[in-house]
Amino acid sequence: MSDTTKDTIASRLSDLREVMRRERLAAFIFPSTDPHCGEYVPDRWKGREFISGFDGSAGTAVVTMSEAALWTDSRYFLAAGEQLAGTEFVLMKERVEGTPTIAEWLGRKLAVSDTTEVGIDGMTCPAADVDTLRAGLRANGGLTLRTNFDPLALIWKDRPEAPLAPVELHPVEYAGEDCPSKLARVRAAMRERHAEGMLVSSLDDIAWTLNLRGTDVHCNPVFVSYLLVTHVSAVLFVDSRKITDGVAAYLETCGVELREYGDITSALRAYGEYNILMDGSLTSHTLYNSVRTHGRIDTALPITAMKAVKNAVEADGFRRAMVRDGVAMVKFLCRLRAEVERGGLTELGVCRLLAGYRSAQPLFRDLSFDTIAAYGAHGAVVHYEPTEGTDTPLEPRGLLLIDSGAHYLDGTTDITRTVALGPVDDEQRRVYTLVLKGHIALSMLKFPHGAAGTQLDAVARAAMWREGMNFMHGTGHGVGSYLNVHEGPHQIRMEWRPAPLLPGMTVTDEPGIYIAGRFGVRIENTLIVVPYMETGFGRFLQFEPLTLCPIDTAPIIPEMLTDEEKRWLDDYHARVFGTLSPHLEAEETDWLRRATSPIG
Predict the structure, then answer these.
(1) How many structural domains is the chain composed of?
(2) pLDDT tier at 478 (50, 70, 90 boundaries)?
């Protein structure tokens, strides 16, 4: 962080504390979320980044009159430590023994404060999180929580406006199901839950239901809006300046009424049905408590699970998109070593080069997230993104970790490859091979229908656990169909996530090992769940790799792989070559033939 940025953060904290003093607030909490409780948010709602300088996708900043701290998870321990250096903010490592919760920390820090009131903007924090926080504050010193105040409205002088990019139609030829059919399924699910209405806050759920897309969130094809559905109506709350005549006419044919985005609170207050279905973990506290009805049904929305299971059109779209993405990756990889040996290529240069190959592919729309091109020690920073200040030249030695992806009209991609740019040492080879073993083990797994990702997670970690190694991020997440690259409800991770894995779900397979200060290794494919067999013990499922790109064999220690693992790798590479080679130039085909030659 530059000295200018450090001074800027200090100035912002000073302004905040002046406002807190006037409002008699002992502390203020800045979550990562926005009014739609999303993981990635438009610039207007990046309040935590504004006040702390930390730009990761997960974290919570807390400011008292004399101290400041930031909580984040293991993906960002190194990156947050670097970005917070020189500021007041102390890094709090979530889920690490000895790290207090926010409520515990505030209880200690405010024990002698002349006020016990803590603030948080209820419009940008999920109702469930507010309830948990309020209970924790009450238990730690009898602190109270105020939710009706946003200090950023006073201190963020150049705050960005809400985005106004036009909303776009997503053709049914890529969606595989029209909007009226989806609304009918949604209403049937509401009847099963005895719900008279439902509020949808999650932007990707809205985009999927209505077969619309947007560009309001960086690298996420969604648009800022709310959707209120009853058994007889559907109302989209969105800024009318974003709606073209064509989209308005389309929504009318789908039976969807348009109202202004800012009308949502008053509409909920006037809501007259007997009850309403809302997910308290994905609905802001303010909106959740705006409804004056007989009952709230607080549970996961049916749309989230519907969206996760890809229909046949979406699944085939993924397969086509992966071919184009694989072609782009091969064009990039076959020239990478030569570019490095020529000299002058940096991490940012890698990002630009790869983006160029992807953008040249048919149906390309955007990157699905900012490319992680992490050379050497940067590879140990799980969500490292190169900047002008950290950009590092590549040398013909060591490992380069590249985590990247793209949105195409027919699918979204997410792939990580760790590549040897030249000689690598024994430790790097051993770590690389352990990660590969974990990747292959999960990809080969057969499992009963309905198993949750948590029940599968250990398979990807077993080989590294035997060596006393581990990684702290999840092993896999769902991927949207030209939608957000992170999609639930299913995940593969150590922490319990009860959502079952079902046929048609996409999920990543991305184990890794990170040696702080030295290097990192991650290998990732996107998979789709497909049937395996049915026996007297029930239905069993397996994974089909969707990603098509060679896995670097140079850093592998072959003796560490079993015969079965070698066969899997050879079979995967044969499929990669057979599928991609017809789309490549002669030079690229020759490189791919070498890159996919049998490991044996």
Answers:
(1) 3
(2) very high
